[in-house]
Protein 1
Amino acid sequence: MSNFLGSVQSGGPSYSLPVENSGVDLAPYESAKDELVKYIEDAEPVDYEWESIYADIPARIKYIIKDGKVTVEDEIMDFDDLEF
Protein backbone atom coordinates (compact mmCIF):
# COMPACT_ATOMS: atom_id res chain seq x y z
CA MET A 1 0.00 0.00 0.00
CA SER A 2 1.30 3.45 -0.89
CA ASN A 3 1.86 6.09 1.76
CA PHE A 4 0.99 8.82 -0.74
CA LEU A 5 -2.43 10.19 -1.55
CA GLY A 6 -2.97 11.90 -4.89
CA SER A 7 -4.80 15.19 -4.71
CA VAL A 8 -6.15 17.11 -7.69
CA GLN A 9 -7.65 20.56 -7.40
CA SER A 10 -10.31 21.25 -10.00
CA GLY A 11 -8.82 23.65 -12.51
CA GLY A 12 -5.54 23.89 -10.61
CA PRO A 13 -2.26 22.13 -10.00
CA SER A 14 -2.11 18.53 -8.88
CA TYR A 15 0.25 17.09 -6.28
CA SER A 16 0.74 14.11 -3.98
CA LEU A 17 1.09 14.20 -0.20
CA PRO A 18 1.62 11.43 2.34
CA VAL A 19 -1.61 10.12 3.82
CA GLU A 20 -2.36 11.43 7.30
CA ASN A 21 -1.98 8.10 9.10
CA SER A 22 1.32 7.13 7.41
CA GLY A 23 3.44 8.29 10.36
CA VAL A 24 5.16 10.88 8.18
CA ASP A 25 5.46 14.51 9.35
CA LEU A 26 3.16 16.35 6.92
CA ALA A 27 4.40 19.89 7.71
CA PRO A 28 7.30 19.97 5.20
CA TYR A 29 5.09 18.49 2.48
CA GLU A 30 2.29 20.99 3.17
CA SER A 31 4.78 23.87 3.12
CA ALA A 32 6.34 22.73 -0.17
CA LYS A 33 2.89 22.21 -1.68
CA ASP A 34 1.77 25.70 -0.65
CA GLU A 35 4.92 27.30 -2.08
CA LEU A 36 4.58 25.39 -5.38
CA VAL A 37 0.89 26.26 -5.78
CA LYS A 38 1.64 29.95 -5.09
CA TYR A 39 4.52 29.91 -7.61
CA ILE A 40 2.27 28.38 -10.28
CA GLU A 41 -0.64 30.73 -9.59
CA ASP A 42 1.66 33.80 -9.64
CA ALA A 43 3.33 32.81 -12.93
CA GLU A 44 2.61 34.92 -16.00
CA PRO A 45 0.76 32.95 -18.70
CA VAL A 46 2.73 32.15 -21.84
CA ASP A 47 1.29 31.45 -25.29
CA TYR A 48 2.31 28.09 -26.73
CA GLU A 49 1.22 25.09 -28.78
CA TRP A 50 2.01 21.44 -28.04
CA GLU A 51 1.08 18.56 -30.30
CA SER A 52 1.14 14.96 -29.12
CA ILE A 53 0.58 11.81 -31.11
CA TYR A 54 -0.74 8.84 -29.19
CA ALA A 55 0.12 5.76 -31.24
CA ASP A 56 -1.87 3.38 -29.05
CA ILE A 57 -5.21 5.10 -29.76
CA PRO A 58 -4.16 6.43 -32.51
CA ALA A 59 -4.85 10.13 -32.10
CA ARG A 60 -3.25 13.53 -32.55
CA ILE A 61 -3.97 16.05 -29.79
CA LYS A 62 -2.93 19.69 -30.03
CA TYR A 63 -2.98 21.92 -26.95
CA ILE A 64 -3.03 25.66 -27.63
CA ILE A 65 -2.69 28.46 -25.07
CA LYS A 66 -3.26 31.91 -26.56
CA ASP A 67 -4.00 35.07 -24.57
CA GLY A 68 -4.86 32.97 -21.50
CA LYS A 69 -7.43 30.86 -23.39
CA VAL A 70 -6.96 27.09 -23.68
CA THR A 71 -8.01 25.26 -26.83
CA VAL A 72 -7.65 21.55 -27.52
CA GLU A 73 -7.89 20.09 -31.01
CA ASP A 74 -8.06 16.35 -31.54
CA GLU A 75 -8.04 14.00 -34.47
CA ILE A 76 -8.56 10.24 -34.44
CA MET A 77 -6.34 8.70 -37.08
CA ASP A 78 -5.84 5.39 -38.85
CA PHE A 79 -2.84 3.38 -37.70
CA ASP A 80 -1.54 3.57 -41.28
CA ASP A 81 -1.42 7.39 -41.10
CA LEU A 82 0.89 7.55 -38.07
CA GLU A 83 4.18 9.33 -38.80
CA PHE A 84 7.09 9.38 -36.38
Protein 2
Amino acid sequence: MKDFPLFRSGEAGAAGTLLMAGPLLLFAVTPGMQPLAIVLILMALPMGLCVSGLACGGGPMAAGLLGGIGALYLITGLDGALLGAVYLLPIVIAFLVCILRRIPFWKSCAVMIGVHVASITGCYLILQQMAGGQLFEVAGDLVLGALEGWEGTDSLLYSFYQYGLIQVPDAMKDTVLVPVMGGNVLSDAARADMLLSLRALINNLVTTFVPSFLAGQSILGGVGSVFLSIRFGDAAAKGRDYKQVLDDKKELQAPDFPDLGMPPIHLWHLPRGMGWKVGVALIVGTLLQSSGSVPLAIAGVLLNGGATAIFTLQGVAMINFMQKMKGTRLGWRIAIPLILYMTSMLSIVGIFDQLNNFRGLRKPRQPKEEP
Protein backbone atom coordinates (compact mmCIF):
# COMPACT_ATOMS: atom_id res chain seq x y z
CA MET A 1 0.00 0.00 0.00
CA LYS A 2 1.47 3.31 -1.09
CA ASP A 3 0.01 5.25 1.83
CA PHE A 4 1.15 2.71 4.42
CA PRO A 5 4.45 1.08 3.42
CA LEU A 6 5.98 -1.14 6.06
CA PHE A 7 8.61 1.53 6.80
CA ARG A 8 8.70 5.03 5.31
CA SER A 9 12.47 4.94 5.68
CA GLY A 10 14.94 2.95 7.72
CA GLU A 11 15.48 5.69 10.31
CA ALA A 12 11.80 6.58 10.60
CA GLY A 13 10.84 2.92 10.92
CA ALA A 14 13.37 2.19 13.66
CA ALA A 15 12.64 5.38 15.60
CA GLY A 16 8.87 4.98 15.27
CA THR A 17 8.91 1.33 16.36
CA LEU A 18 11.08 2.08 19.39
CA LEU A 19 9.05 5.14 20.40
CA MET A 20 5.64 3.51 20.01
CA ALA A 21 6.27 0.20 21.77
CA GLY A 22 9.33 0.73 23.98
CA PRO A 23 8.01 3.08 26.71
CA LEU A 24 4.73 1.17 27.16
CA LEU A 25 6.47 -2.18 27.65
CA LEU A 26 9.10 -0.60 29.90
CA PHE A 27 6.49 1.03 32.15
CA ALA A 28 4.47 -2.21 32.21
CA VAL A 29 7.36 -4.15 33.82
CA THR A 30 8.57 -1.33 36.10
CA PRO A 31 7.04 -1.42 39.61
CA GLY A 32 4.97 1.67 40.31
CA MET A 33 4.86 2.74 36.64
CA GLN A 34 1.99 0.52 35.52
CA PRO A 35 -0.67 3.23 36.09
CA LEU A 36 1.28 5.58 33.80
CA ALA A 37 1.32 2.91 31.09
CA ILE A 38 -2.47 2.52 31.34
CA VAL A 39 -3.01 6.30 31.17
CA LEU A 40 -0.79 6.55 28.07
CA ILE A 41 -2.66 3.70 26.38
CA LEU A 42 -6.03 5.31 27.11
CA MET A 43 -5.19 8.93 26.35
CA ALA A 44 -2.28 9.03 23.89
CA LEU A 45 -1.83 5.70 22.12
CA PRO A 46 -4.82 5.90 19.70
CA MET A 47 -3.59 9.23 18.35
CA GLY A 48 0.01 8.02 18.36
CA LEU A 49 -0.89 4.99 16.26
CA CYS A 50 -2.48 7.19 13.59
CA VAL A 51 0.43 9.64 13.53
CA SER A 52 3.05 6.88 13.35
CA GLY A 53 1.19 5.18 10.51
CA LEU A 54 1.41 8.16 8.17
CA ALA A 55 4.74 9.53 9.41
CA CYS A 56 6.73 6.32 9.92
CA GLY A 57 4.87 3.47 8.21
CA GLY A 58 2.69 0.47 8.94
CA GLY A 59 5.45 -1.30 10.86
CA PRO A 60 5.70 1.23 13.71
CA MET A 61 1.91 1.49 13.76
CA ALA A 62 1.59 -2.28 14.21
CA ALA A 63 4.40 -2.26 16.78
CA GLY A 64 2.58 0.38 18.83
CA LEU A 65 -0.67 -1.57 18.64
CA LEU A 66 0.98 -4.80 19.77
CA GLY A 67 3.01 -2.92 22.37
CA GLY A 68 -0.12 -1.41 23.91
CA ILE A 69 -1.96 -4.73 23.99
CA GLY A 70 1.16 -6.48 25.29
CA ALA A 71 1.62 -3.91 28.06
CA LEU A 72 -1.98 -4.43 29.19
CA TYR A 73 -1.38 -8.18 29.18
CA LEU A 74 1.67 -7.76 31.41
CA ILE A 75 -0.23 -5.50 33.80
CA THR A 76 -3.70 -7.04 33.96
CA GLY A 77 -3.51 -10.39 32.18
CA LEU A 78 -5.51 -11.73 29.25
CA ASP A 79 -8.72 -9.83 30.08
CA GLY A 80 -6.91 -6.50 29.95
CA ALA A 81 -5.22 -7.41 26.66
CA LEU A 82 -8.58 -8.28 25.09
CA LEU A 83 -10.05 -4.98 26.30
CA GLY A 84 -7.09 -3.18 24.77
CA ALA A 85 -7.80 -4.88 21.46
CA VAL A 86 -11.48 -3.87 21.65
CA TYR A 87 -10.41 -0.27 22.30
CA LEU A 88 -7.55 0.12 19.82
CA LEU A 89 -8.29 -2.13 16.84
CA PRO A 90 -11.48 -0.37 15.63
CA ILE A 91 -9.71 2.99 15.79
CA VAL A 92 -6.77 1.73 13.72
CA ILE A 93 -9.03 0.04 11.16
CA ALA A 94 -11.24 3.13 10.79
CA PHE A 95 -8.20 5.34 10.29
CA LEU A 96 -6.79 3.05 7.61
CA VAL A 97 -10.12 3.07 5.78
CA CYS A 98 -10.36 6.89 5.92
CA ILE A 99 -6.86 7.34 4.48
CA LEU A 100 -6.98 4.58 1.87
CA ARG A 101 -10.41 5.62 0.59
CA ARG A 102 -9.46 9.33 0.72
CA ILE A 103 -12.56 10.22 2.72
CA PRO A 104 -12.73 14.05 3.03
CA PHE A 105 -11.23 15.53 6.17
CA TRP A 106 -14.32 16.50 8.17
CA LYS A 107 -16.10 13.28 7.24
CA SER A 108 -13.01 11.35 8.36
CA CYS A 109 -13.11 13.25 11.66
CA ALA A 110 -16.78 12.32 12.07
CA VAL A 111 -15.95 8.65 11.39
CA MET A 112 -13.11 8.70 13.93
CA ILE A 113 -15.29 10.37 16.57
CA GLY A 114 -17.97 7.73 16.06
CA VAL A 115 -15.46 4.88 16.31
CA HIS A 116 -13.96 6.37 19.49
CA VAL A 117 -17.45 6.51 21.02
CA ALA A 118 -18.16 2.92 20.00
CA SER A 119 -14.81 1.61 21.29
CA ILE A 120 -15.00 3.37 24.66
CA THR A 121 -18.65 2.38 25.12
CA GLY A 122 -17.83 -1.23 24.21
CA CYS A 123 -15.03 -1.39 26.79
CA TYR A 124 -17.29 0.16 29.41
CA LEU A 125 -20.07 -2.36 28.78
CA ILE A 126 -17.62 -5.27 28.92
CA LEU A 127 -16.15 -3.99 32.20
CA GLN A 128 -19.64 -3.54 33.63
CA GLN A 129 -20.47 -7.13 32.69
CA MET A 130 -17.23 -8.41 34.23
CA ALA A 131 -17.93 -6.43 37.42
CA GLY A 132 -21.49 -7.72 37.69
CA GLY A 133 -22.95 -4.28 37.03
CA GLN A 134 -20.96 -2.74 39.91
CA LEU A 135 -18.02 -1.28 38.00
CA PHE A 136 -17.66 1.90 40.03
CA GLU A 137 -17.80 0.04 43.36
CA VAL A 138 -15.24 -2.51 42.13
CA ALA A 139 -12.94 0.32 41.03
CA GLY A 140 -13.11 1.80 44.53
CA ASP A 141 -12.33 -1.58 46.10
CA LEU A 142 -9.32 -2.07 43.81
CA VAL A 143 -7.86 1.31 44.75
CA LEU A 144 -8.39 0.66 48.46
CA GLY A 145 -6.84 -2.78 48.13
CA ALA A 146 -3.75 -1.25 46.53
CA LEU A 147 -3.51 1.35 49.31
CA GLU A 148 -3.63 -1.23 52.10
CA GLY A 149 -0.10 -2.44 51.48
CA TRP A 150 1.43 0.96 50.68
CA GLU A 151 3.55 2.62 53.35
CA GLY A 152 2.49 6.11 52.32
CA THR A 153 -1.25 5.46 52.77
CA ASP A 154 -1.58 7.40 56.03
CA SER A 155 0.20 10.45 54.63
CA LEU A 156 -2.01 10.40 51.53
CA LEU A 157 -5.20 10.06 53.59
CA TYR A 158 -4.24 12.89 55.90
CA SER A 159 -3.37 15.15 52.94
CA PHE A 160 -6.76 14.45 51.38
CA TYR A 161 -8.39 15.18 54.75
CA GLN A 162 -6.58 18.50 55.12
CA TYR A 163 -7.68 19.58 51.64
CA GLY A 164 -11.27 18.65 52.41
CA LEU A 165 -11.49 15.84 49.86
CA ILE A 166 -12.41 13.23 52.47
CA GLN A 167 -14.19 13.64 55.79
CA VAL A 168 -14.47 12.08 59.25
CA PRO A 169 -17.37 12.42 61.72
CA ASP A 170 -17.34 15.64 63.78
CA ALA A 171 -16.95 13.66 67.00
CA MET A 172 -13.69 12.20 65.71
CA LYS A 173 -12.00 15.38 64.48
CA ASP A 174 -10.11 15.96 67.74
CA THR A 175 -8.73 12.41 67.74
CA VAL A 176 -7.69 12.00 64.11
CA LEU A 177 -4.04 11.92 65.11
CA VAL A 178 -2.63 10.02 68.07
CA PRO A 179 0.84 10.73 69.48
CA VAL A 180 3.58 8.14 69.17
CA MET A 181 7.28 8.26 69.78
CA GLY A 182 8.72 10.88 67.41
CA GLY A 183 5.45 12.23 66.02
CA ASN A 184 1.78 11.48 65.29
CA VAL A 185 -0.06 8.82 63.33
CA LEU A 186 -3.65 8.33 62.26
CA SER A 187 -5.86 6.60 64.76
CA ASP A 188 -7.31 3.27 63.64
CA ALA A 189 -10.87 4.64 63.76
CA ALA A 190 -9.92 7.74 61.73
CA ARG A 191 -8.10 5.64 59.15
CA ALA A 192 -11.14 3.38 58.72
CA ASP A 193 -13.50 6.35 58.25
CA MET A 194 -11.10 8.06 55.86
CA LEU A 195 -10.87 4.92 53.73
CA LEU A 196 -14.66 4.75 53.53
CA SER A 197 -14.80 8.43 52.56
CA LEU A 198 -12.06 7.86 49.98
CA ARG A 199 -14.03 4.97 48.50
CA ALA A 200 -17.06 7.25 48.06
CA LEU A 201 -14.83 9.90 46.48
CA ILE A 202 -13.41 7.36 44.01
CA ASN A 203 -16.92 6.19 43.08
CA ASN A 204 -17.96 9.78 42.36
CA LEU A 205 -14.82 10.48 40.34
CA VAL A 206 -15.20 7.34 38.23
CA THR A 207 -18.91 8.07 37.70
CA THR A 208 -17.95 11.50 36.37
CA PHE A 209 -14.81 10.39 34.51
CA VAL A 210 -16.40 7.76 32.28
CA PRO A 211 -18.93 10.04 30.49
CA SER A 212 -16.47 12.94 30.46
CA PHE A 213 -13.79 10.73 28.92
CA LEU A 214 -16.32 9.36 26.42
CA ALA A 215 -17.32 12.83 25.21
CA GLY A 216 -14.03 14.71 25.40
CA GLN A 217 -11.65 11.94 24.29
CA SER A 218 -13.92 10.96 21.40
CA ILE A 219 -14.07 14.46 19.93
CA LEU A 220 -10.53 15.62 20.65
CA GLY A 221 -9.08 12.19 19.92
CA GLY A 222 -11.07 11.74 16.72
CA VAL A 223 -10.25 15.13 15.21
CA GLY A 224 -6.72 15.17 16.64
CA SER A 225 -5.88 11.76 15.19
CA VAL A 226 -6.73 12.84 11.66
CA PHE A 227 -5.26 16.34 11.96
CA LEU A 228 -1.93 15.43 13.61
CA SER A 229 -1.35 12.37 11.42
CA ILE A 230 -1.75 14.51 8.29
CA ARG A 231 0.45 17.30 9.64
CA PHE A 232 3.26 15.03 10.83
CA GLY A 233 2.94 12.69 7.87
CA ASP A 234 3.04 15.55 5.37
CA ALA A 235 6.10 17.06 7.08
CA ALA A 236 7.84 13.69 7.03
CA ALA A 237 6.95 13.14 3.36
CA LYS A 238 8.35 16.54 2.35
CA GLY A 239 11.47 15.88 4.37
CA ARG A 240 12.04 12.56 2.63
CA ASP A 241 11.48 14.11 -0.78
CA TYR A 242 13.97 16.88 0.00
CA LYS A 243 16.57 14.36 1.16
CA GLN A 244 16.04 12.30 -1.98
CA VAL A 245 16.63 15.39 -4.09
CA LEU A 246 19.96 15.98 -2.33
CA ASP A 247 20.97 12.35 -2.79
CA ASP A 248 19.75 11.78 -6.35
CA LYS A 249 20.04 15.36 -7.63
CA LYS A 250 16.55 15.29 -9.12
CA GLU A 251 13.92 17.98 -9.18
CA LEU A 252 11.80 18.27 -6.08
CA GLN A 253 8.27 17.05 -6.72
CA ALA A 254 5.26 17.56 -4.48
CA PRO A 255 4.59 14.30 -2.61
CA ASP A 256 1.40 12.44 -3.44
CA PHE A 257 0.21 12.67 0.15
CA PRO A 258 -3.34 11.92 1.39
CA ASP A 259 -4.15 15.24 3.06
CA LEU A 260 -7.92 14.58 2.63
CA GLY A 261 -8.46 18.23 1.68
CA MET A 262 -7.80 19.37 5.25
CA PRO A 263 -8.31 23.15 5.62
CA PRO A 264 -5.65 25.21 7.43
CA ILE A 265 -6.26 25.07 11.16
CA HIS A 266 -6.50 28.86 11.51
CA LEU A 267 -9.65 28.74 9.32
CA TRP A 268 -11.49 26.14 11.41
CA HIS A 269 -14.72 27.57 12.79
CA LEU A 270 -18.26 26.67 13.77
CA PRO A 271 -21.11 28.02 11.64
CA ARG A 272 -23.20 30.50 13.60
CA GLY A 273 -26.22 28.20 13.93
CA MET A 274 -24.16 25.24 15.09
CA GLY A 275 -22.25 27.44 17.53
CA TRP A 276 -25.46 28.44 19.28
CA LYS A 277 -26.51 24.80 19.56
CA VAL A 278 -23.18 23.83 21.11
CA GLY A 279 -23.47 26.78 23.51
CA VAL A 280 -26.95 25.68 24.61
CA ALA A 281 -25.61 22.13 25.14
CA LEU A 282 -22.86 23.55 27.34
CA ILE A 283 -25.33 25.51 29.49
CA VAL A 284 -27.81 22.65 29.76
CA GLY A 285 -25.02 20.22 30.63
CA THR A 286 -23.76 22.48 33.40
CA LEU A 287 -27.27 22.79 34.87
CA LEU A 288 -27.92 19.05 34.70
CA GLN A 289 -24.71 18.27 36.60
CA SER A 290 -26.14 20.02 39.67
CA SER A 291 -29.59 18.44 39.32
CA GLY A 292 -29.11 15.88 42.10
CA SER A 293 -30.21 13.02 39.84
CA VAL A 294 -27.44 10.59 38.87
CA PRO A 295 -28.78 9.83 35.34
CA LEU A 296 -29.34 13.53 34.64
CA ALA A 297 -25.92 14.39 36.05
CA ILE A 298 -24.26 11.83 33.78
CA ALA A 299 -26.17 13.26 30.80
CA GLY A 300 -24.95 16.70 31.88
CA VAL A 301 -21.34 15.51 31.97
CA LEU A 302 -21.71 14.11 28.44
CA LEU A 303 -23.17 17.36 27.10
CA ASN A 304 -20.66 19.52 28.95
CA GLY A 305 -17.69 17.40 27.91
CA GLY A 306 -18.70 17.31 24.27
CA ALA A 307 -19.42 21.04 24.05
CA THR A 308 -16.19 21.90 25.87
CA ALA A 309 -14.18 19.73 23.48
CA ILE A 310 -15.75 21.43 20.43
CA PHE A 311 -15.04 24.93 21.77
CA THR A 312 -11.52 23.77 22.66
CA LEU A 313 -10.88 22.94 18.99
CA GLN A 314 -12.18 26.37 18.02
CA GLY A 315 -9.90 27.89 20.67
CA VAL A 316 -6.91 26.14 19.07
CA ALA A 317 -7.89 27.59 15.68
CA MET A 318 -8.28 31.07 17.18
CA ILE A 319 -4.87 30.96 18.87
CA ASN A 320 -3.25 29.68 15.68
CA PHE A 321 -4.87 32.53 13.72
CA MET A 322 -3.42 35.13 16.08
CA GLN A 323 -0.01 33.46 16.07
CA LYS A 324 0.11 33.46 12.26
CA MET A 325 -0.80 37.16 12.23
CA LYS A 326 2.06 37.95 14.59
CA GLY A 327 4.56 35.53 13.02
CA THR A 328 5.01 33.50 16.21
CA ARG A 329 7.82 30.96 16.13
CA LEU A 330 6.96 27.27 15.75
CA GLY A 331 7.94 26.34 19.30
CA TRP A 332 5.56 28.91 20.80
CA ARG A 333 2.82 27.87 18.37
CA ILE A 334 2.91 24.45 20.03
CA ALA A 335 3.65 25.50 23.62
CA ILE A 336 0.98 28.19 24.03
CA PRO A 337 -2.01 26.01 23.04
CA LEU A 338 -0.71 23.22 25.29
CA ILE A 339 -0.42 25.57 28.26
CA LEU A 340 -3.89 26.98 27.64
CA TYR A 341 -5.30 23.45 27.28
CA MET A 342 -3.81 22.35 30.60
CA THR A 343 -5.34 25.40 32.28
CA SER A 344 -8.74 24.77 30.61
CA MET A 345 -8.58 28.17 28.90
CA LEU A 346 -8.82 27.00 25.28
CA SER A 347 -12.56 26.41 25.46
CA ILE A 348 -13.04 29.94 26.84
CA VAL A 349 -11.01 31.31 23.90
CA GLY A 350 -13.22 29.31 21.55
CA ILE A 351 -16.39 30.68 23.11
CA PHE A 352 -15.00 34.23 22.82
CA ASP A 353 -14.26 33.68 19.13
CA GLN A 354 -17.74 32.27 18.54
CA LEU A 355 -19.44 35.24 20.17
CA ASN A 356 -17.25 37.96 18.65
CA ASN A 357 -16.37 36.55 15.20
CA PHE A 358 -12.87 37.95 15.78
CA ARG A 359 -11.47 36.26 12.67
CA GLY A 360 -14.29 37.49 10.44
CA LEU A 361 -14.97 34.01 9.05
CA ARG A 362 -18.75 34.15 9.49
CA LYS A 363 -20.75 36.41 7.26
CA PRO A 364 -22.46 39.24 9.13
CA ARG A 365 -26.17 38.87 9.69
CA GLN A 366 -28.26 40.49 7.02
CA PRO A 367 -30.91 42.91 8.30
CA LYS A 368 -34.44 41.70 7.74
CA GLU A 369 -36.29 43.55 5.02
CA GLU A 370 -39.31 45.47 6.20
CA PRO A 371 -42.55 44.51 4.44
Protein 3
Amino acid sequence: MDKIKDNPDEWDDFELACGKELKNITIDKIEEFIEAFGNFKIEFSKYLSEQEKNINYDQLSNKIADKTCDSINNFYKR
Protein backbone atom coordinates (compact mmCIF):
# COMPACT_ATOMS: atom_id res chain seq x y z
CA MET A 1 0.00 0.00 0.00
CA ASP A 2 2.95 2.32 0.52
CA LYS A 3 3.71 2.11 -3.18
CA ILE A 4 0.31 3.65 -3.90
CA LYS A 5 0.82 6.46 -1.39
CA ASP A 6 4.36 7.16 -2.61
CA ASN A 7 3.51 7.10 -6.34
CA PRO A 8 -0.16 7.97 -6.82
CA ASP A 9 0.28 8.91 -10.50
CA GLU A 10 1.37 5.36 -11.27
CA TRP A 11 -1.86 4.03 -9.80
CA ASP A 12 -4.35 6.06 -11.83
CA ASP A 13 -5.40 2.84 -13.51
CA PHE A 14 -5.70 0.60 -10.47
CA GLU A 15 -6.44 -2.61 -12.35
CA LEU A 16 -3.38 -2.25 -14.57
CA ALA A 17 -1.09 -1.27 -11.69
CA CYS A 18 -2.45 -4.06 -9.50
CA GLY A 19 -1.73 -6.61 -12.21
CA LYS A 20 1.81 -5.33 -12.64
CA GLU A 21 2.40 -5.48 -8.90
CA LEU A 22 0.87 -8.95 -8.57
CA LYS A 23 3.56 -10.47 -10.77
CA ASN A 24 6.10 -9.34 -8.16
CA ILE A 25 4.29 -11.02 -5.25
CA THR A 26 5.93 -14.19 -4.01
CA ILE A 27 3.89 -17.09 -2.67
CA ASP A 28 4.95 -16.25 0.89
CA LYS A 29 3.47 -12.74 0.49
CA ILE A 30 0.18 -13.70 -1.18
CA GLU A 31 -1.85 -13.52 2.06
CA GLU A 32 -0.49 -10.01 2.68
CA PHE A 33 -1.50 -9.03 -0.85
CA ILE A 34 -4.99 -10.48 -0.45
CA GLU A 35 -5.46 -8.60 2.84
CA ALA A 36 -4.23 -5.34 1.27
CA PHE A 37 -6.56 -5.83 -1.70
CA GLY A 38 -9.48 -6.48 0.64
CA ASN A 39 -8.66 -3.28 2.54
CA PHE A 40 -8.53 -1.40 -0.76
CA LYS A 41 -12.01 -2.62 -1.71
CA ILE A 42 -13.42 -1.46 1.62
CA GLU A 43 -11.76 1.96 1.46
CA PHE A 44 -12.62 2.45 -2.21
CA SER A 45 -16.26 1.63 -1.52
CA LYS A 46 -16.27 4.23 1.28
CA TYR A 47 -14.71 6.76 -1.09
CA LEU A 48 -17.31 6.09 -3.79
CA SER A 49 -20.12 6.38 -1.26
CA GLU A 50 -18.81 9.80 -0.22
CA GLN A 51 -18.48 10.88 -3.84
CA GLU A 52 -22.03 9.75 -4.54
CA LYS A 53 -23.25 12.24 -1.92
CA ASN A 54 -21.94 15.04 -4.17
CA ILE A 55 -24.24 14.10 -7.03
CA ASN A 56 -27.31 16.30 -7.37
CA TYR A 57 -29.86 13.84 -8.67
CA ASP A 58 -32.50 16.55 -8.93
CA GLN A 59 -30.60 17.91 -11.93
CA LEU A 60 -30.40 14.56 -13.67
CA SER A 61 -33.10 12.65 -15.44
CA ASN A 62 -34.26 9.44 -13.78
CA LYS A 63 -32.61 7.35 -16.47
CA ILE A 64 -29.20 8.98 -15.98
CA ALA A 65 -29.54 8.75 -12.19
CA ASP A 66 -30.36 5.04 -12.42
CA LYS A 67 -27.39 4.42 -14.72
CA THR A 68 -25.07 6.35 -12.41
CA CYS A 69 -26.21 4.44 -9.34
CA ASP A 70 -25.86 1.13 -11.17
CA SER A 71 -22.34 2.00 -12.30
CA ILE A 72 -21.26 3.04 -8.81
CA ASN A 73 -22.81 0.05 -7.09
CA ASN A 74 -21.66 -2.57 -9.60
CA PHE A 75 -18.30 -1.29 -10.89
CA TYR A 76 -16.48 -4.38 -9.60
CA LYS A 77 -18.71 -6.81 -11.54
CA ARG A 78 -17.59 -5.59 -14.95
